[in-house]
Amino acid sequence: MPNAKFVLLALFGAVAGQGVVWYTGQFYVLFFLTITLKVNYLTAYLLIGAALLIGSPLFVVVGRLSDRIGRIKIILAGCLLAALTYFPVFKGLTHYANPALDTFRDTTPISVAATDCNMHFFPTANTVYSKCDRVTDFLTKRGLSFESKPAVAGQDVVTKIGDVELAGWDPPKGSPDDPRFLKVLKYRGYPA
C-alpha cells in the first residue's frame, strides 16, 4: 500500500497535533480553572462559553483562508501558535484567576528528591504508586510546581517546601494526604 505512510503521517502527525491543541483549548483549560485554580464552576463555564462564542466565527474565516493558502499551512501555524502561547496563557490564567496561588508559587520553592518517581500514563487498579508518586500527586493537585532532585541516601522521598524539609510520605489510615504536608503548606501561607 504505497499511500500508507502518508496516511499514518497525517494521522499521527498533523491530526495528533490538532487533537492536542483542541483538547487543551476546550477541556483542559476548564479543568485547570476549576481543579487547580479553584475558580467556581459557574464562573469557569461562563468564561469557556464566552471564549467559544468569541472564537466560533473565526472557524469560517480560517476555513476560507485555508481554502486559499492550503490546510497544512493553517494546521502547522495553529500548532506552532499553540506551542508558543500555551505556557504564557496558563501562567496568565494562574496570575489573574488565583493571584494568591501565583504569589505562593513564586515565593515558595518546592523540591522533591527521590529515586522511584514514575510516570503513570495508563494507571489501572493494579498500578502501584511509590511514596514519591504520592507526594508529586499531592503537590500537582494543589497547582504547585516542584523541582526534581537526586535521591537522598537512605530516604524514599524528601520534599522541601520553602525552608521546611519533610522525609517520606505517611498519611494516617483512611486518609489520602499526609497531615505534615498540609500543616507545612498552611504554615507557608498556601491559599486554601
In short:
The chain is an alpha+beta fold and 192 residues long.
Work out the count of structural domains: 2
Tally of helical runs: 6
Distance between the termini: 58 Å
Spans of at least 5 consecutive residues with low confidence: none
**Strands in their spatial order, largest beta sheet:** 2-1-3-4
Q: Strand share of the residues?
A: 5-15%
Please give the radius of gyration in angstroms.
Answer: 21 Å
What is the ordering of alpha helices and beta strands? HHHHEHEEEH
- The shape, in one word, is globular
Question: Strand pairing plus helix content: what structural class?
Answer: alpha+beta
Please give the number of β-strands: 4
Question: What is the helical fraction, as a range of percent?
Answer: 55-70%
Largest sheet, strands/sense/barrel: 4 strands, mixed
Average pLDDT over all residues: 90
